[in-house]
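Homework help board

Subject: predicted structure for assignment chain

Our instructor gave us this sequence and asked us to write out the predicted structure in token form, then describe one feature. I got the tokens but I'm not sure how to describe them. Can anyone check?
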Amino acid sequence: MKRILVLASVALLSACQSPSSNAVSVPASPMTTQSTAGFDPLPNDALKTLIVGKVLHLGTSNSVATYFADGRYDLVSVNDHWTGRYAFKGDKVCVRFKTGPTRKGSTRCGQVAMIGTDYWLIATDDGERLKVNSITAASAPNPS
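My token output:
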């Protein structure tokens, strides 16, 4: 039994040290804020580096969230489409929704954390967690 636990511990530590092929480099910064959900969110500067001007492919439904460099936000899922503007509040990114089937006129905030070897977007209102499957550069937004 001890041998199995030792092997499992070594495998777990190895997995924590191997970066995901989808991971994006962010500047090393001290993480001083710990969420009540038990994870360390990325600090403001690392969060901005990770998402500004980027497209995040999220979760198992392949939702696509675009954080344009000019502050516009666009989220497309299989059946729905939301737009809005985003801003940073400490270690959170908050979206004020302008259009969409739900949340129109409301604001929703989230934090990004590295859990294991993956980035996760975690809503601060209900704790919903969406795995960030990949991150790519965003193209220039269409004027609206």
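Reply (TA_rk): Your tokens look well-formed. For the description, you could write something like this. The CA atoms of residues 108 and 137 lie 23 Å apart. That's the kind of observation they're looking for.
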